[in-house]
Amino acid sequence: MIRRQWKRLAIPALSGVIALIWLSQFTVSIPLHLIARGLRRSWPIIDYPMYSGPHFEGDQISRLAVVGIRDNAEEIDILPEDIGGGYWHFKIFATAVKHADKEVIQDVVRMYEARRNVRLAAIRVENRPLLWKTKQVEAVPTEVLRTYPLNNTEEKSPIP
Fold this sequence. Notes:
Blueprint: H1 2-35, E1 60-61, E2 64-70, E3 75-78, H2 80-83, H3 86-98, H4 102-116, E4 120-127, E5 130-132, E6 137-139, E7 143-149
Antiparallel strand pairs: 1-5, 2-3, 2-4, 4-7, 5-6
């Protein structure tokens, strides 16, 4: 008999607990959201890499781009598909150019030149950011992060 009463009260009791949790969450979050809009920016984990991307209006969305510069000053955008390995390999390459990591740069440039049958005199890494507006993004002026000269022409064989 007691067991049967307990089973009858278990579902309403659990539902009451869930309703109490929802009510307390609403009571705290809605007024806090309306009163302290700037509080979201001070959230303690917002600086972690997983969460540190642009979240708010006015934030800039960084976009790295690598530009190959030929001997005749012609500029060629080097895309992730051009070097193979996808976006993450491209990001490693762009970071290597930014930090002037000679070995990584030489390997990727050698492979790129062979695939595209071009000769590069220098490469440049740029940030082509976008500015997050309310319902759209706007282009922001390009920032040159580094230009890396490829002045090892005596090591390269001529491209036919």
